[in-house]
Amino acid sequence: MTELAPSRTDSSPAGDCHAEWKKGGAEATGLDLAAAREKLATRRGPAYWRSLEELSEAPEFGELLDREFPRFAAEWPDGVSRRNFLQLAAASLGLAGLTACTRQPIEKIVPWLKQPEQVLPGKPLHFATSMTLSGVAIGLLVESHGGRPTKIEGNPDHPASLGGTDAVSQASVLGLYDPDRSQHAARLGRIGSWNDFSNELAAALRAQDALGGSGLRLLTGPTTSPTEARLIGELRSRFPQAQWHRWDPLADAGRRHALAAALGVPLEARFDLASADVILALESDFLTSGPGAVRYAHDFASRRRVAEGSAAMNRLYAAESSPSPTGSVADHRLRLRPSAIPRAVQALAAHLGVAGVSASPPESPALDEATARWIAAVATDLAAHPGRALVVAGETLPAAVHVLVAAIHEKLGASGATVLYTAPLEAEPVDPLASLAELLADLQAGKVDLLLISGVNPVYDAPADLEVARILRESRGHRFHHGLYDDETAEYCHWHLPAAHYLESWGDARAYDGTASLVQPLIEPLYSGKTLSEILAAMLGRGGESAYDLLRETWASGHTALSAALSDDAFRKLLHDGLSAGSATPATVPALVSVTAVAAAASAIAALPAPSENDLELALRPDPSVLDGRFANNGWLQELPKPITKLTWDNAVLLSPRTAERLGVHGEQVVEITTTEGRKASGPVWILPGQADGVATVHLGYGRTRAGKVANEIGFSAYVLQTASSRWGSTSITVRKTGDQVKLATTQGHHAIDWMREESEQAAVRAVVRQASLAEYRANPNFAHGEGHAAGGLDTSVSFHPGFEYKGYAWGMAIDLNSCTGCNACVVACQAENNIPVVGKDQVARGREMHWIRIDRYFQGDIDAPAGIASQPIVCMQCEQAPCEVVCPVAATTHSTEGLNDMVYNRCVGTRYCANNCPYKVRRFNFLLYQDWETEQFKLQRNPDVTVRSRGVMEKCTYCVQRINRVRLAADRDQVQVADGEIRTACQQACPTRAIHFGNLNDVSSDVVAMKKNSRNYSLLEELGTRPRTTYLAMVKNPNPELAA
Amino acid sequence: MAQIFPKSANAVAKASIFAVLFLVAAGGFALWRLANSGYVTRQGIILEQPVPFSHDHHVAQIGIDCRYCHTAVESQASAGIPPTQTCMNCHNQLWTNAALLEPIRASLREGKPIQWNRVNDLPDFVYFNHSIHVAKGVACTTCHGPVDKMPLMYQGAPLTMKWCLDCHRDPVKNLRPRSEVANVFWQPPADLAAQQAIWAKAHNVQSKVSCSTCHR
Amino acid sequence: MSLAPADHLIPKPFGTPSEVPVIAPGHSPASVTDKISSVVFGRMPLWFYAGMAVMFGGVMMLLAALTKLVFVGIGIWGNNNPVGWGFDIINFVWWIGIGHAGTLISAILLLLNQEWRTSINRFAEAMTLFAVACALIFPLFHTGRPWLAIYWLLPYPNTMAIWPNFRSPLIWDVFAVSTYGAVSLLFWFIGLLPDLASFRDRTKKAWQKRTYGALSMGWRGSARHWHNYESAYLLLAGLSTPLVLSVHSVVSFDFAVGQVPGWHATIFPPYFVAGAVFAGFAMVLTLMIPLRKFFGLQDFITMKHMDNMGKVMLVTGLIVGYGYLVEIFTAWYSGNIYEWYMMRNRVFGPYRWIWMSLILCNVLAIQPLWFARARKSIAALWIISMFVNFGMWFERFVIIPTSLHRDFLPGSWGMYYPTRWDFATFFGTIGLFMALMFLFVRVLPSIAMFEMKTLTTDARVKGGSHG
Questions:
Q1: Do C160 and B36 touch (CB under 8 A)?
Q2: Phi, psi at residue C444, to the nearest 5°?
Q3: If one looks up domain C6-459 in CATH, what number appears?
Q4: Do A952 and C260 touch (CB under 8 A)?
Q5: What is the DSSP string of A215-239?
Q6: Does C364 touch chain B (CB under 8 A)?
Q7: Which of C159, C201, C209 sits opposite B162 (nearest CB)?
Q8: Sorting pLDDT into bands at 50, 70 and 90, what band is A1045?
């Protein structure tokens, strides 16, 4: 279908000045996927490198060649662009003096053959689908332009999303177009076909028929998909002896085990943040990671929107080793070593009088005084809120902790209230680690004739001591690999088959609460990828059947418990909604926690090693951006400044200032970590205030070798430090300086601790982030204004000039700092919506990142032990009196009649005067040709409603003026007013916590006006008289008086 | 001392002053004309098309409404180019064997769309929206010229920014009753100006000259 | 001929010419012309060509740097966010500043009837032109899209029906600098006419005769010529006097109009103008001293010149130093936390060493000029002038990147590190400047011969103070 989407055909980017200004996507490219695919064969990396080598005499090409992200950080526009530039220069100089610097090239316009209904040129369509992570789904709405998915939105009807999303799902659309995804089946590295694959698979399976499949092994990620479960069931019935193994580097069965142990049956815990008054997060970043995080963040924030006379505000305690977004929004944050947390929990349980836990177990060393005091206060507070208290223990904590937490919940009457126990979502839940170990054992024992690995990459991301690579290499059987990338694991398999991206797939899955969600494709597979269901079907000898048929079959035949047989209409409705309403797994009322289990857990905890003050602990955690590394080849996520650290393009050894001092290491110095098991890895140090002393946190997901051009060889792999027994860290490691230095690219702080101190002190002085305790706020709702602030309460609206009168609309924005968790979803959403390029590590290091949204991070109080961490999203403020507008010599940035600070890219000559004069520094300049003009796939992703900027041009946030215009024109056409909430900016839409409010300031009933009426509302640097349209709602913390002292 | 220069040198020197002035003026004028010429703006230039489609014939003589083919014009930014199917609605009855129409039949036969050359082509950084102009009562021919008198299609207006602004600064003078936007035979009433004022009020016509009206 | 028309307009020269003469005794008009034109018609020593070659090497480097800039982008420089302007604008302001001495010496000192200017004005004017030429490179090439900037900044009727933004100081720059360049060029050329004519008459080679002849526009030294010449020269002097003040005032608006702490100051225009004169005189000395030595022009550029220029440098230098003080005071007195932080950041921040070098070069290094001994020591003068050249460059660095790199929101702070291409461009312009100087010295009279004649004793004897 997409072949025929109406579109202009591409004319070389700079054949004429105007063409510099190609709109993204279909508008710019003769959207012909077939042709695109052909081009890919030739137009990929290699071509680029060739063009580099041509130039490699020049000295700086050394640096350039080993730059992580050459395609984007093209300090040298590649051959084509350079040629075009010559033409352009010639043309423009030749015709200098003309206003139109040259004629338009003749462009083609291609109509449909038969116009389908609803598909109209330039009109985007939205389809409901779902993205799964570790098998758990989040419901999405995907925007499609002429058959090209361009933008991910949350599905407002989906319980896991409610319209919000996270950074990873926002960025997944780039993953779809990733040119490094494997593009054809390969047998031993040679191009093969789906037919050869399925034939060979069938042949191998025939051999298994006799053996009842005893030699057949399946290794997949955890799945909640009814269809996949059904097919695997059928496979089992054909091969009763076959084994199905699961692996997932993110998941730890600890909690499930614990619940099974404590409550007798395997159960899943899910939380109701909306009804929790007091929350304790233990080494858990539940607001931004793990299944349901988007919904949790939403519910959590719904309890923090304080206004005068508003309902009670919740209170969050966080005890964690490394600062996370959750910790940064906590009212009380305790820096605690991972090894100390179990004992803290035990103390907590003791305080609460949980049966089976002795107050001070002799054999376990006591907590230090401060921690003990903290725990005591928390315990009192939790106990004071029976049925409305909640303890969230992180996945990485040992099972024993989860047992105690279950007991605590029961004690607090939280079970069934704030904690809901349900049957596991996963089909046939297993402990992934054990499951993988079994498989490896069988492989070594030579029991495996035929192994199908689908969607997992254990060679890279399994604990190193399992030696997956060696075992695979030495195993005899036939190995098939199915995945998005020809990755580290594929290297050890005979066959590799490209998988279909979820935006290319039919399927189903269940959300964090069990809601059955539908996966429907937005586009035909770009690289002839197949879904797991299709492969399973092939194994069942039904190779012909499409994923759609298989899905339909599941839902038609009532195979799934979720629904009876569905009529076609009902199924169409299901697809339209993207979920089957009311299919959430019901909460079960669990049995009482067994005291024996608790006692066992308590003694287990007591038995845990208790490192001394001077021991250095290692904490291995998923990376905030690329998680376990499965998203490592996604440029948007790599360049995304990680929450708190603000690092891009790298992982590092995170140390607290004191610890770094004690070890005598500085930022960016490379250290070699040696674990007690004698495993070694080297990486650069990053000093991070808020980190617990004596803990080195290292993020997983880096140091990949076969991920693609983006991710290969950046950062270092922390999996080599992992062992099956200690997946999430080690209680005592040694570090040694190697003497090397590595440049890390950060968007804030500049790798110097005193720089961070300076920054944070000045932020405080300048009252950039305004904050008060709930008590102070109640006492003085106006705390964010008047004396004591830089503005000193002066009225900046006073002016000799009569202000412009906005008759029609007057757009404005308010950002509630109390709701913002700094999760980065808005940053990526903005990047996707506005065709913002990726610039690469080198350019970020030079301070040239292009994100239109900058999330500033400030440490509050003593930099060594910060009292708090504040995140503040900074976007263009659309100042009423914009300093940038006055100074632009060519009037490329001017004020619109609706109060927007327009930026006209095609008029800009790039003096950068506006950026200099912008007090908020929100303008971004294309210092080089950052935009990728070459890669066909990326053209498909671009938003045709936004100009694609070229080199030498300033750009910035425009409140998504393309969205404003679309809605405003439609309303104007029907001669009605734009209704409040009809226009939603990309950042606003993505925000899981509803921190961003946008609307018409002239509409007194609008949401944004209500926010601006809130007494917490203040404008940044108001004393400059710029009168920003974007304002902030000051932060209100809800500290516990007991701990406040 | 021997003269280096002939006597005429003085005259030449004096004349050169005026010559320079003249050249500067003339050069400026030439550039100005060039910038406004059809060569640069493409106004009035007929492009080669796969099928020599005659708007003159279909619109003026047969009287087909613009919106029969350009279906999206009232609802979308882009007016839309008719799919091959639309041509065949009639031409599977009429001129079924005409050699001229072979490309159309071929397109349907081979399932390959016809590739037309864009006649009215704005730069890619300009976001023009047909639907709103039509809704406000700006007629097709106001910007596309006398389409009904174009045996072969050409660009009817310069489509320069200046030309756009001329109307955007004072749109009223280009208005029609909404019902008449697609009517190529429309005759303005005697009291046009007065009427236009009324239509403008009726359709809430505003002068929109913010940059973001057209550029994003 | 006589400068009579002006005599009644202008004050009498303050003080009689001091005991040190502005021209060595024993010179006759003929000897003056011989001596000065020998520089042009005589044979040049080897070092001259060597130096010229080096400087043209610099020009080539400039061309290479600019070519790469246009083809690859501003990204080859160190500019970033928040520091949008770096070497580019620093160099622009620095060169424009240097350009000031010429007009000042020629126009203002002429109007003030300071005889001692005569031997150095021609040279200073040439320096002005070349400095402005170097300066003009930057406003154009610092833009992201120079191929558009080159004409979009000019107001002219166009098919976009849109004009430049006249509120922007960058547009004021375009007019200020181009006017200044044009007037300086005219002033310089008019001044050259009589000397070109005498070259025409002296040279033996036919093509030189034709060239100098064409350039001298048929000058015959008739009474009418002299009369018109005098009035034209005076008029231009009058015209360009306000320019000395206006140009750098306008340039300073680029910053003063902005609201960046460290830019947004009313003191900027006077303080920039003083700085410009300061820089200009320093550069004149830097170049004059070697020139005088190598071409044995000690007779025409006497110790009196050195002395006077030393004094001017001292005065302007003190004004600049005062400027620094006032900046610090206002930053503190304003009670504006951003201003005060900016000042502390200048003095104690990451770029403190640049601020310290600035104070060293522009304030401390010039103090010896209080003493006649320093002003009369060629070596001392030259070294001090070099200090000032560097100092004024540092001043612009302190004003531009140091103010930008830490402004209002700490979250947006950054550092600025110039790249090899920044230096290539900077040194390239120095190469261009010097190369032009070499050419000038070789083909044109670097000292106004006819004016020097008016200072010769026998000219004075002939009654009227002019020959």
A1: no
A2: -130, 155
A3: 1.20.1630.10
A4: no
A5: TEEEEE-----HHHHHHHHHHHHHS
A6: no
A7: C159
A8: low
